[in-house]
Amino acid sequence: MKTALVIVYILSSVWAIGAIIYHGRRPSRSISWALAIIALPVLGAVLYYLFGMNRRKFKFFNTKEFEKRNKYTHPKISAQEKFLTHFNTDIRKERLNRLIETSSNTTAKAKNKITALQDGGETFNVLFKALEEAEKFIHVQYYILERGELLDKMLELFKRKINEGLEIRIIYDSLGSYQLRGRPRKNFKDVGVKIYPIMPIRLKNLLFSLNFRNHRKIVIIDNKVAFTGGVNVSDKYIKRENGLGKWKDTHLKLEGPIVNDLHLVFLKDYFFASNKEDFHISDYLTEQEAAGDVDAQVVAGGPDSKHPTIMQQYIGMMNQAKSSICIANPYFVPGEAFLQSLKITALEGVDISLLVPKKSDSQAAKFAMFSHFEELLQVGIKIYLREDFSHSKIMIVDDDLVSIGSGNFDMRSFELNYETNILIYNREIAKEMTQEFNKISEKANLVTLERFRNRTIWQKFLEGLFKFFKPLI
Questions:
Q1: Could you tell me the pTM of the whole model?
Q2: Which pLDDT belongs to residue 114?
Q3: What is the pLDDT of residue 208?
Q4: Which among 31, 251, 382, 437 could bridge 229 via Cys, Cβ 3.0 to 4.6 Å?
């Protein structure tokens, strides 16, 4: 029996390490997986097969479903051309716009109105008010739809709206919204909602779907109002929970030409999830009117993108910085490319502040995040630990650019998840977000290099351990 197990261990390890050498793209990630395979007999090879293989090289990203999904483009709406934004007087912004356009296939739009919602309670108050005012259709997409008061309220509202003749569609991530399985999902179907999971976890597609999650949060109402950001449908945002308390987060209400761009992201995902072309895209991506004076751009990326869109957006923003960068994120575990860019920018004299929660819902992510603090502090980056738990994903550059959305600063958001950010080219909103950032930072604990170096040996060991496995987190 022992001999058979040894043979299985050797064969599985040889196969997995061979696959790493042949398909691996980044040495750091490859080394981490090799260590996992050696340290975890057989299990390491299984985990690599499920989570580590570079599936961009495989059939999954060449199926007819993906080809059809990516053929969805904007209908030719001549009136939309007047909202295209060209930053002729600011070559830095124009270069950033072109980068996102090349990577995400969206361009900056002018004449939008954007409202920042700084708290989960505020977000749901504004969201449900807008849902109540819907007249034609409601389109909803979330990573997490969790059982509780908010989900029950949404069900009752949708039931009334369908009785009024509205169309309602919901798509959700099958892993993130695991609580929706069974009766909760049936409740929505029973009232007439068209509801589908994205990449459902089933045995036949387990190897190709388990590691790729749809992390987007999008609501479109009558193609007039849209919402996106970091907030999921969970009572964590309105009620205190043990350990982390009531979650904080940042969301956006959007009006104007940018709604079409965000809506297209939803329609692509809906078609992919449902595999049913039960709508005419031109009926939903309608002509938009000017709603404000904000220039903004949708940034949408995923594992089927040609480029790591979210990472390129963040590095592109960083390269625009002249004076300051503010980053707020609960899972700051980026790869070496981003870290090196951040350190170089700090050494060039740009004032960089990082605001992260002291407590986390993921201890592995927390230790991996803390493992980089010393090298960041050494180059003069200020790090603040806030006492409450914030799920916000924000980057502000020079009080001039701000990104808010679903994309974390980690390799999962950079390469494995479908994410959506809104890049806002507006000084007024950027200043508003900076003021909120500074207000929270003043109440947070500033980490000093001397104090951080005095942490316990056990904490340093855990940080080193999870730093090594960072590419796998």
A1: 0.87
A2: 98
A3: 57
A4: 251
Q: What is the pLDDT of residue 410?
A: 92
Catalytic residue among 215, 236, 251, 366, which?
215
Q: Which of 109, 393, 467, 470 is catalytic?
A: 393
Domain count, the chain: 3
222 is catalytic: yes
CB neighbour list of residue 47: distance below 8 Å, 6 or more residues apart: 36, 40
- Annotated active-site residue 86? The verdict is no
Query: In the beta sheet, which residues pair with residue 214?
Result: 418
For residue 164, tell me if it sits in a domain. Answer: yes
Residue 51 DSSP code: I
Among 58, 99, 55, residue whose Cα is nearest residue 416: 55
* pLDDT higher at 36 or 313: 313
Please, what is the Cα angle at 391 between 439 and 55, to 5 degrees? 140
Query: What residues have CB less than 8 Å from 293, skipping those under 6 apart?
Result: 110, 111, 426
Q: Mean of the per-residue pLDDT values for the chain?
A: 86
One-letter amino acid for residue 468 of the chain: F
Q: With bands split at pLDDT 50, 70 and 90, how would you rate the model's confidence at 57?
A: very low
Q: How far is CA 452 from the centre of its chain?
A: 29
What are 171-186's pLDDT values in tens digits? 999 999 999 989 999 9
Residue 33 carries which side chain, given as an amino acid letter?
W
Same domain flag for 325 and 359: yes
Q: Is-contact 405 230, C-beta < 8 A? A: yes
> Which range of residues forms the domain containing residue 458?
309-472
Please tell me which residue in 391, 399, 410, 470 is annotated as part of the active site: 391
User: What's the number of CA atoms in the CB half-sphere (13 Å) around residue 357?
Assistant: 23
Tell me whether residue 143 is in a domain.
Answer: yes
Quick check: is 25 in a domain? Answer: yes
Q: Using the predicted structure, report yes or no on whether residue 292 has a pLDDT greater than 50.
A: yes
- Is 398 among the catalytic positions? yes
Average pLDDT over residues 247-258: 97
Q: Which of 269, 398, 400, 410 is catalytic?
A: 398
Catalytic residue among 161, 173, 222, 268: 222
Which neighbouring-strand residues pair with 402?
396, 424
Q: Does 27 have pLDDT greater than 60? A: no
Residue 101 lies in a domain: no
Task: Identify residue 130 by its one-letter amino acid code.
Answer: A
Q: What is the pLDDT of residue 272?
A: 87
- Same domain (yes/no): 329, 366: yes
Catalytic residue among 109, 111, 217, 343: 217
